Amino acid sequence: MEPDLTLLRELVDASPGFGRGTAGSVPEALIAAAEARVGPLPPSYRWWLAEFGHGRAGDADIATAGPADDTDDMDEAITAGWRLTGDRLCFAVEPDCGDSFHFALDRSGEAGDGEYPVVCRDGADGSEYPVAESFAGFLAVQAARLRGLRDGPNPAVARLWRSTPGVLLGNGVHVYGPQSIGERNETFEVPRYAPDWVLVGDDSGGGGLLMRRHGRDRVSVHRLGLGAICADAEAAGEWVTDDLPGWLRAGGPLPG
User: Fold this and answer.
1) Largest CA distance in the chain
2) Do the first three CATH levels of 5-145 and 166-249 match, i.e. the same topology?
3) Of 40, 88, 164, 215, whose CB has the highest number of CB atoms within 10 Å?
4) In the chain, which ranges are continuous DSSP H helix?
5) Is 166 left (phi over 0), alpha (psi -120 to 50) or beta?
6) Angstrom distance (rounded) from CA 152 to CA 243
7) Level-2 CATH architecture, domain 166-249
8) 153: Cβ–Cβ under 8 A, 6 or more apart, which residues?
9) What are the boundaries of each domain within the chain?
10) Whole-prediction pTM value?
11) Is-contact 244 251, C-beta < 8 A?
């Protein structure tokens, strides 16, 4: 999924453990100058630079784009000489020889959106493993873990969060990111009335989108009135899809 930048701003503003540098946003000219050195930067990372310039997500310090005359010497700049090694561009590092996070420049993003997958290099043994499908997804994954949500309530939502911190479509369909899913489930008392289910979104018209937390079918989405949430949401509601990301890419058509 292409990152939703409106919800990304909401995620950054609402996430404990996120911080912003004091220098403020980076001008477009400096971002372009950085790209001239390291190549095109992912749109959601460009957005971060233009909005905040510098900061952190959890323990990870996120690189900025510094003045063109000293970027090779600025350790925190994305253009620092050590950050680009082959097809890996390091954009975030945890302190004290912790993990580092890299754009995998040899892998194309989804649907030609200009994003690069994010991989982590273990600070202890140097092993590499995938983290997210975009910089926005990296922030969503970090926010989820800081909130104690792990990867997400089920694999389908976890897959979505690795690309974008939620989705808000023109027809009112809203699938929540880690910044709002907990509050929405508490508001509608889902753990009390439907403990095996999770409210993953709504249709902005009084209908909730629910998925199972447990069991064999953790991919089907069912729509049920937010005032009628119950333990048997499948029987009480209506089936929507068994491919959440594909359904969202198709515009989130609702039954009826």
Assistant:
1) 64
2) yes
3) 164
4) 5-14, 28-38, 43-51, 135-146, 155-161, 181-187, 190-193, 233-236, 244-249
5) left
6) 16
7) 3-Layer(aba) Sandwich (3.40)
8) 181, 198, 200, 211, 213
9) 5-145, 166-249
10) 0.94
11) no
Segment holding 104, helix H or strand E: strand 100-104
End-to-end CA, the chain:
25
Whole-angstrom distance, CA of residue 53 vs CA of residue 40: 17
pLDDT per residue as tens digits for the range 67-123: 755 555 578 999 999 999 999 999 999 999 899 999 999 987 666 789 999 999 999
pLDDT tens column, 161-220: 999 999 999 999 999 999 999 999 999 999 999 999 999 999 999 999 999 998 889 999
Measuring CA to CA, how many Å separate 247 from each of 156, 161, 217, 221? 12, 15, 17, 10
Report residue 152: phi and psi, to 5°. Answer: 140, 170
- C-alpha to C-alpha distance for 209 and 173, rounded to whole angstroms: 9
Amino acid at 123: G
* Cβ–Cβ < 8 Å for 203, 254: yes
Q: CATH number of the domain at 5-145, please?
A: 3.40.1580.10
Task: Name 5's bridge partners.
Answer: none
What count of Cα atoms within 13 Å lies in the side-chain half-sphere of residue 10? 16
